[in-house]
Design goal:
The complex is a heterodimer.
Chain A: E1 2-7, H1 11-23, E2 31-38, H2 59-73, E3 80-87, H3 90-100, E4 105-109, H4 115-119, H5 124-131, E5 136-139
Parallel strand pairs in A: 1-2, 1-4, 2-3, 4-5
Helix pairs in contact in A: 3-5
Chain B: H1 23-50, H2 55-78, H3 85-93, H4 96-128, H5 134-151, H6 157-183, H7 201-212, H8 232-261, H9 264-268, H10 275-281, H11 289-324, H12 343-365, H13 372-397, H14 412-432, H15 436-457, H16 465-469
Helix pairs in contact in B: 1-4, 1-6, 1-7, 1-8, 1-11, 2-7, 2-8, 2-13, 2-14, 3-4, 3-13, 4-5, 4-11, 4-12, 4-13, 4-15, 5-12, 6-8, 6-11, 7-14, 11-12, 13-14, 13-15
The chains are: A alpha/beta, B mainly alpha.
Chain lengths: 149, 476
């Protein structure tokens, strides 16, 4: 099975990757593709909260370092790890990637536990859940736990 | 994998370089960004400064801007990154203070542009609904755009294209009116060579260029999408310079159409409302004037909105970059957990623009005799002209560094001409309206305050690698 692990550079997406590793059987997974999507017309096209590096004006570098950080989670786990950086609308690109790689599972993080998720339609995790061609694992933050680093 | 049998291929080929902005999209992004910024708002002022021949001012202005665009295209193809002018200046001079000044100036230009556009928006809005006061309309407009930006609607490439088409359609209406008027035989072509200002005609044109230059700005924001453009070495020069040349052509034709259809003094009289509306209201086309006025007003509102959105996308981005470099407080690097938008930066940008609008209102209420659109446009232009001139110098200075045979190379004599042009317009803009420098200083002060706050209170939690490592680098 080919598993897609999406990252938006958030800490929650790192938690999602770790969560997958905590229960999945590496023998049943052939490949893991880490997918980051750059949103060219957004104010911040890609925000990497995972590394402390300075930002030198390249969102591609930011996406690359986030993808590297997530890929490191799967070091020595077994399945082949691919790093993919795409460009466009986050949900669309994750869904397209799922089709293209014939993925058996998509792992996404959902950052929100506040009002914003309920009030504003169309968060990336919601759209992926609705339209992905395969099962989707949405990893939510633990309720009311102090933020861990 | 399904297609692994057909051809052995490098593992990353479909993804590593996957970019999403096509040359055509970049062209429309440039066109939309440039067209919305001034012609809908400033054309009357330019007509007043020059006379019937004010199309010459637009032609001259857009030529200087397009040359500057060529310098940007060269730098973007060498350094395809989102940081734009700040990055180029850092690469060329390696001077932290200068880079900071350029970044803050760029940010300030963007704030002032947003303020000017919001005021222009309000002046068109009264045509639809005149009850609410202009200040309130412009403040609500900015607040709404901040929310729209936060949600992320601005990220739609399709919406960007649609808005650009609407923008162009408004200007096509003006051209059609001009052509119709000529066909009817009502036009006096003598108007097009009339420089009705006493004194040196060249100076009158220069004054017009300084005023109209706001209409040429916006193209520098295309560096935003430099990294995500497909085949940037080819697409960027074509789409950026191409977009500006088309915008320039549209400007010249629109100015000619306006000058031919409506007497210049009527265009120039601001008491009559936006100048392009005068053209629509002239009743030349055999369509209900009332309908055309409403339609054109809505088109103008959309055009202004499109350009304002791009400026509001750029501001939090600049603040984000500076915060990541520990130049301004770290809160500006915060992005919302779900939305991934830099909400602190957005909110701050909205507040600064709101502050500009309220200040402008207060000054004119106190009898300052202030035309806020004009003042903020001048402030934008002063900042941008200085940056443009510096970018051209940077472009020349970086010749021989990081050369790449695929990179676009702008024509050197043209660049020198552009440099002289930018400086001449800058000189005239400041000479004509020296008090705009006070506003410039105020905006730069906002940046300096943020810097001081970061230096005094920031960085307590972690060491600041940026301040050490980002001193001039030897490898540049």
């Amino acid at each position: 099975m080919h598993v897609i692990v999406a990252t938006d550079g958030s800490r929650q997406s790192l938690a999602a990757a770790k969560h997958l590793k905590s229960f999945a059987d590496p023998a049943k997974i052939t490949e893991v593709s880490i997918v980051a999507v750059i949103r060219p017309l957004a104010s911040v096209a890609f925000a990497d909260d995972l590394s402390e590096d300075g930002f030198e004006g390249s969102f591609r570098d930011a996406a690359q370092s986030a993808v590297d950080r997530i890929a490191a989670v799967f070091d020595g786990w077994g399945p082949k790890v691919n790093k993919r950086i795409r460009s466009g609308s986050a949900a669309n690109e994750i869904i397209k990637a799922a089709r293209q790689y014939e993925a058996g599972l998509v792992v996404v993080a959902s950052g929100g536990r506040g009002l914003s998720d309920a009030v504003l339609v169309g968060s990336t995790a919601q759209r992926v859940q609705h339209y992905a061609p395969c099962p989707v694992l949405v990893v939510r933050p633990a309720p009311r736990k102090p933020r861990k680093r | 994998m399904a297609d692994s049998a057909t051809m052995p291929r490098p593992d990353e080929d479909d993804s590593e370089l996957k970019r999403s902005i096509t040359g055509a999209q970049l062209f429309f992004y440039t066109l939309g960004d440039v067209l919305g910024s001034g012609i809908y708002v400033l054309i009357g002022l330019v007509a007043a400064a020059v006379g019937g021949a004010f199309w010459i001012a637009f032609a001259a202005g857009v030529t200087v801007a397009a040359i500057t665009g060529a310098a940007y295209a060269e730098l973007v193809t060498k350094y395809p990154r989102a940081a734009g002018s700040s990055l180029y200046v850092q690469k060329a001079f390696g001077n932290k203070a200068l880079t900071f000044l350029v970044t803050v100036s760029f940010l300030s230009a963007s704030f002032a542009a947003t303020g000017s556009l919001a005021t222009g928006f309000a002046s068109y809005f009264t045509e639809l609904w005149s009850a609410p006061p202009a200040l309130l309309v412009s403040l609500v407009f900015v607040a709404l755009l901040v929310v729209v930006n936060y949600i992320g609607i601005t990220e739609s490439v399709v919406m960007n294209m649609v808005m650009t088409f609407v923008e162009v359609s408004g200007l096509l209406i003006i051209m059609l009116i001009g052509i119709w008027h000529v066909a009817e035989g009502g036009a006096d072509f003598g108007t097009l060579t009339d420089i009705s200002v006493s004194g040196n005609p060249a100076l009158a044109v220069l004054a017009g260029v300084a005023l109209s230059f706001f209409a040429m700005t916006g193209f520098e924001n295309t560096a935003n999408v430099a990294e995500e453009t497909i085949d940037p070495h080819k697409a960027f020069p074509r789409s950026l310079v191409g977009g500006m040349v088309v915008a320039g052509l549209v400007y010249v034709l629109v100015s000619m159409a306006a000058a031919l259809s409506v007497p210049t003094d009527q265009l120039a009289d601001e008491g009559n409302g936006p100048a392009l509306l005068q053209v629509v209201e002239s009743g030349i086309l055999p369509i209900s004037t009332d309908f055309m006025t409403k339609l054109f007003t809505i088109i103008a509102l959309i055009a202004i909105t499109n350009t304002t959105l791009v400026t509001l996308v750029t501001q939090p981005r600049i603040l984000y970059g500076m915060a990541r470099e520990d130049v301004v407080p770290g809160v500006f690097a915060k992005v919302h957990t779900t939305r991934r938008s830099p909400w602190v930066g957005l909110l701050f940008s909205g507040l600064v623009v709101g502050g500009l609008l309220v200040t402008g209102y207060a000054v004119s209420a106190a009898g300052g005799g202030l035309d806020l659109v004009n003042r903020l446009a001048t402030v934008t232009v002063v900042f941008l002209l200085a940056i443009y001139a510096l970018v051209i110098v940077t472009c020349l200075k970086l010749r021989g560094h990081d050369e790449d045979e695929r990179a676009f190379r702008a024509n050197t004599p043209l660049l020198l001409l552009g440099l002289v042009g930018n400086l001449a317009i800058l000189y005239y803009a400041v000479y004509d309206d020296p008090s705009s420098l006070i506003w410039c200083a105020g905006l730069v002060a906002v940046g300096v305050v943020l810097y001081l706050v970061e230096q005094l209170f920031g960085g307590g939690s972690k060491p600041r690698p940026g301040t050490v490592s980002r001193t001039p680098k030897g490898d540049l």
